[in-house]
Specification:
Layout (H helix, E strand, L loop, with lengths): L1 E6 L4 H14 L3 E6 L20 E4 L6 H10 L4 E4 L6 H6 L2 H22 L11 E7 L24 H20 L3 E6 L2 E2 L8 H10 L4 E4 L5 E3 L1 E2 H14 L5 E4 L4 E3 H15 L6 H4 L5 E4 L14 H7 L7 H14 L1 H8 L2 H10 L3
Parallel strand pairs: 1-2, 1-4, 2-3, 4-5, 5-6, 6-11, 7-10, 8-13
Antiparallel strand pairs: 9-12
The structure holds nicotinamide-adenine-dinucleotide and thymidine-5'-diphosphate.
Thymidine-5'-diphosphate (TYD) binds next to α6 and β8.
């Protein structure tokens, strides 16, 4: 039975990945989830799998090298899938330190622990051990509105403290591949959306605000472009890269699904109107009049767009979920999980929202 060590599995993509893996492999794999439960980590995301015999959770910070070393020593780990990170650009602009701590130094701890557990006395690595570092397209910087794309060979050019910290961690993984022939892959994915996404990110924030008749904050002119991917497609890509990718390679993941932020907001409003039943009081609240242009994000990247040619040609992965379907699935999930939204937006979220949006 293959044993996975997943870091950051209580967050948005990590929890979707764990669900995906149990749907796909059932009892034939074991997953150990390591997460220190920051504001973004939520065990409610995993309550459906918490009682499985082939699932374990450790509340551990990835910067704690002793605790991480112990987990490797006590378990014969076959796969590491490393999601744990601080992931929100706006937070990184206000508080960059923790991004360097977790994203850079935490990744170094994970690399060292896996290397110590997997390296043989002659410097080679035990067979069939693999590390996958989950990264972002934001490390490539910003594109013009000129139809160009990010390729795996595009020079790294991060602009925000978040993307700089992710680029640094990518480079550390690459250094371990190049120096030690460490058995790893790096994936650089575009913006994800779907169930369990924390409402600091654009799509869940807009859904949540619209349903309450609250302002929909649009940074700058609303014409920044992101390439949106449904989170299950990302989970599938990660698994395919880890099992079928060439070790040591980087793979871009994304879907030729570029949209301006303002388009996304209009699609959400239209879809909410379609999906809310007549007579539902929220239908009256959901309106274009809520759209409010606010001060732009500092250093706001204009456009991201992935060329997924390599992963398609070598591995056969392509995005399966059309945006119009994925957004309906996402909204349906939020309709069915009102309590989840209430829990994550109580307490500290209010403070965050005021700090981030009050003077914008
Ligand atoms: P998220 O913020 O929802 O979740 C991050 C998780 O990591 C949380 O559960 C948090 O508790 C945990 N964590 C944070 N610091 C930790 C630490 N020091 N030790 C242990 N656990 C810690 O993030 P996400 O959106 O799920 O992103 C997951 C990964 O995917 C990140 O590495 C991110 O850079 C990458 N990524 C995200 C997107 C996106 O659109 N969200 C796109 C491409 C790549
Ligand atoms: P976000 O979801 O934070 O992802 P990222 O910055 O990592 O791409 O933001 C997506 C886009 O939406 C980005 O261009 C910033 C913009 N945005 C808004 O216009 N208003 C908001 O309230 C948020 C959170 C984001």
């Amino acid at each position: 039975m293959r044993t996975y060590l997943v870091t950051g599995g209580a967050g948005f993509i990590g929890s979707n990945y764990i669900h995906y893996m149990f749907r796909k492999y059932g009892d034939s794999i074991r997953i150990i989830n390591v997460d220190c439960l920051t504001y973004a980590g939520n065990l409610e995301n995993l309550k459906d799998v918490a009682d499985r015999e082939n699932y374990e959770f450790y509340k551990v910070n990835i910067c704690d090298s002793e605790a991480i070393g112990r987990i490797f020593a006590e378990n014969d780990i076959d796969r590491v899938v490393h999601f744990a990170a601080e992931s929100h650009v706006d937070r990184s602009i206000k508080h960059p330190e923790v991004f360097v701590q977790t994203n850079v130094l935490g990744t170094l701890v994970m690399l060292n622990a896996a290397k110590a557990a997997w390296e043989l006395p002659d410097g080679s690595f035990r067979e069939d051990k693999k590390f996958l570092h989950v990264s972002t397209d934001e490390v490539y910087g910003s594109l013009e509105e000129d139809g160009t794309f990010f390729y795996e060979t595009t020079p790294i050019d991060p602009h925000s403290p978040y993307s700089a910290s992710k680029a640094s961690s990518d480079m550390l993984v690459k250094a371990y591949i190049d120096t030690y022939h460490f058995p790893a892959n790096i994936t650089n994915c575009s913006n994800n959306y779907g169930p369990y996404q924390f409402p600091e990110k654009l799509i869940p924030l807009i859904i949540n605000n619209a349903l309450q008749g609250k302002k929909l904050p649009v940074y700058g002119d609303g014409k920044n472009v992101r390439d949106w991917l449904y989170v299950d497609d990302h989970a599938k890509a990660i698994d395919m890269v880890q099992e079928q990718g060439r070790l040591g390679e980087r793979y871009n993941i994304g879907g030729h699904n570029e949209k301006q932020n303002i388009e996304i907001i209009h699609i959400i409003l239209d879809t909410l109107q379609e999906m809310l039943p007549d007579g539902d009081p929220r239908k009256e609240l959901v309106s274009e009049n809520l759209i409010t242009y606010v001060e732009d994000r500092k250093g706001h990247d204009r456009r991201y767009a992935i060329a997924p040619d390599k992963i398609k040609a070598e591995i056969g992965w392509y995005p399966e979920t059309m945006f119009k379907d994925g957004i309906r699935l996402t909204i349906q999930w939020f309709f069915e999980h009102e309590d989840w939204m209430k829990h994550v937006t109580s307490g500290d979220y209010q403070k965050y929202y005021e700090e981030m949006y009050q003077n914008r």
